[in-house]
Design a protein that fits this description.
Elements lengths: L2 H5 L3 H19 L5 H5 L6 H29 L1 H20 L4 H29 L4 H30 L1 H6 L2 H32 L14 H4 L4 H30 L5 H13 L1 H15 L2 H21 L5 H9 L4 H11 L4 H33 L3 H12 L1 H8 L5 H9 L3
Helix pairs in contact: 2-5, 2-6, 2-7, 2-9, 4-5, 4-6, 4-17, 5-6, 5-9, 6-16, 6-17, 7-13, 7-16, 11-12, 11-16, 11-17, 11-19, 12-15, 13-16, 14-15, 14-18, 14-19, 17-18
Amino acid sequence: MTGRSLWRGRALALAGVVLVAFSLRSAVAALSPILTEIQADFAVPAWVAGLIGTAPPVCFAVFGIVTPALERRFGLERLAAAAMVVVTLALLGRAVAGDAGTLLAATAVLFAAVGVGNVVLPPLIKKYFPDRVGTMTALYSGLLAVAAFLPPLVAVPVADAAGWRFSLGMWAVFALLAIIPWVTLVTRERAGARRADAAVTASGAPAPVDIDEPAPRVLGRLPRLPLAWALAITFAISSASVYALFAWLPAILVEHAGVSHAAAGALLSLFGAMGLPWSILVPIVLTRWRRVGVLYAVALVAGLAGVAGMVFAPTAATVLWVVLLGTPQGLFPAVLVLIQLRARTHEGAVALSGFTQSVGYAIGALFPLSFGILHEATNGWPPTLLLLGILFLAMIPAGIIVARPHTIEDEWERRHGAW
């Protein structure tokens, strides 16, 4: 298939996916680097800063449940456009905040809209690019990775040059641009539907039945399916390990591995950067070769080796242990692809995306706190790292289930009858 035929008629959808993906993560990553500059203007209590740090996975979990119902009411394209409208307004709201309460409220609204965007993007890729799921998911997840580490690099210099309000608000431009492709597609779809209705009326034929209308109880079926739980646990492993290590890896490196604070910061950046190559490679490998089991095995062995190295020989090869601990991040783009490969229908993909991300982010939100509690209780880092190893072991049953080439619809029909 040539490049022209690949994108013909889908340029708007491509632009929409790119802009939404970038907006989802840049909105999350732009605040924390300039919190000190904000505190110079008004007080941000520690409990507010803590809530802002906890808000992303909590909001993502809640709106993972809510989004499928919203999609049934409004459709994928309208929901994507609405999410970007809210993101734009919330980003501007943060930029003009005059106190900590307003900053927190705008941030909560922002993360709610980001949670909606997280859920709708995989089904949108499945809808508009069914022949290039791997390529588009690689692009999408790669942009998420870029948008996670780009704002921290530019936020402080921009804040120093133009003020923290401009530094926070400038990301609204991308969210505003992301509205345009989806509104255009909705407008075109509505015009096409009107023409089709007029043609049917003129011919006197019965109106066609919309076979893609999502079944209202699909999300409620997923907790009864092992495949849905296996994907949710996989997503949970990825999000929990990332959130926990972003929160605690610098302290582990300084207190347990004996590195300097500057080196710990550099190693944390290395850990975060590990997500980018996996985001590009994993979707293409999965869609071309379908080696799901191999991916789980690589993530498991690398994760356990990183834990063992950091526990028993933290100073011997610290950089290697950090790289190995970052390897399970490859499960994130893998789940984004598998949501599309393990759902046969449109409503199945939407519901599976919502269920997987809701459960995954809910578990992910618990692990940074669990790490802190266990560290306080044991006064050391090895037990905390072993907890991470136990988390990685959950890849074994999840991988066995996910590696089987079947869909949630197949599994339901085999267990309960017609989908």
